């Protein structure tokens, strides 16, 4: 097929309403992604940049900014469609919404928000998380919705007796678009523990929670969204929802939606890591590893979440609150220096130049040490963030070593958490990675392989991330083969990744030894990080 014929075929797909839309609200960008008859190919994209705010010592996003950002990303996508294919975007075969997991979004019986959105980044829920973990016998991390609600109870916040509905950011957007209070099981598993036998919230643990808060007016069992698994219908776009998404009125209502999912679930889909013994690493504002388990872990670990895939299989999650944001700050600093020196360098090119320089560095980053802690880090038990760059007088302070230290720092906390899984005997057949930090070919991927001492694969869609992942989940709605429903893993293998090209980086022995030396310094230097929190 010629390029002209290919363009005409895509235009026909879009014009006849067969395209599928995915929208993901990430920490720094809201992305919209369109796929066609071949779900492995992104045919159009749009985005909008945004940032969280630190208000009253809480990380938050204004709900008005949620909708402004979604509309901007969708408008950017629609403009991309018209520019590429010369057709308007008026109808879709299916669509889906994904967003950052966890956090706290409570609403009263009239559907009004009770407090500003408290994101996953907040680490103020220590007493609640500790009490619930003890009561349940499973680890309840600080960022889980149940921990946020119970902390509000402990703090005697006046709104708690009025909580009628509690959801995540993806669940909230989906509710406004469809009128349905539902959630994909992967996202739901970051609100409250899921019973693997039923694929629903653990009813015994719900009973314990509601008994614990008896007399406060809170009844969590009645406040959580309905749990759905991948492939189940989750409602249709209403006229009000269509107007929220596209105020121009071009987009029609009635489009079916898949269950809304969290960014962890869409990351697993985007890397084809939903089957047991597979895993993936997602690197963005946060960094997390998801490992699909063959069987439950023998005991709970404070460093690990137990969540699920979008199909409901158990997953051990190593979640690090801090990812590539501090690295981006350094890149911005060097980009500004280039401007002052009279060079015009695009941001992606700045990253490319710095990452390539890191390849010239010493394997242990020359004795330099970097902490990317803009926020608290539960894995290392630090309550707040203090980004640090530390060196001794005899460290080799070169640009390459500096950048390698910053890249190592992105994966430092993750490596500490993955040690726990390895000690528990969890084995992997493959580890895949995605996220913007992997767009520069081979560099971050190579360093991650060193951090995990395992091969790391990166696919062509590594930079697309969760917006493409939720589009693929929307494509999975009603998927059958010879009259039989395909499992999500089968769907990905046969329909999405059958022709996918991946690049695998094996760990380099020198890099492995160098990262191990860095990680020893990193673990010892946490005392410096904690001291900075105390005095700064």
CATH-level-4 superfamily name of the largest domain: ATPase, nucleotide binding domain
Tally of domains: 2
What is the helix content?
Answer: 25-40%
Average pLDDT, rounded to a whole number, is: 93
The secondary structure category is alpha+beta
Continuous helix count: 16
Strand order of the largest sheet: 16-17-15-14-20-21-24
Question: Which characteristics define this entry?
Answer:
single chain, 536 residues, alpha+beta, Nucleotidyltransferase, domain 5, seven-stranded mixed sheet, five-stranded mixed sheet, 18% strand
Polypeptide structure, described:
By secondary structure, the chain is α+β, with helices and mostly antiparallel strands. The protein folds into 2 domains: 3-319 and 462-476 and 483-496, ATPase, nucleotide binding domain (Nucleotidyltransferase, domain 5), CATH 3.30.420.40; 325-431 and 518-535, no CATH class. Helices cover 38% and strands 18% of the residues. The chain contains 16 helices and 24 strands. The chain has helices spanning 3-15, 63-85, 126-136, 145-154, 169-178, 185-188, 203-212, 239-245, 263-270, 325-340, 347-358, 399-423, 443-452, 466-475, 488-496, 509-535; strands at 20-25, 29-35, 42-49, 53-55, 58-60, 94-99, 105-107, 165-167, 182-184, 194-195, 200-201, 226-228, 261-262, 278-283, 287-292, 305-308, 314-320, 369-371, 388-390, 430-434, 456-459, 480-481, 484-485, 502-505. It has a 7-stranded mixed β-sheet with strand order 16-17-15-14-20-21-24, with helices on both faces. Strands 3-2-1-6-13 form a 5-stranded mixed β-sheet. A two-stranded antiparallel sheet has the order 4-5. Strand 1 (20-25) and strand 2 form a beta hairpin. The longest helix has 27 residues, at 509-535. The radius of gyration is 23 Å and the shape is globular.
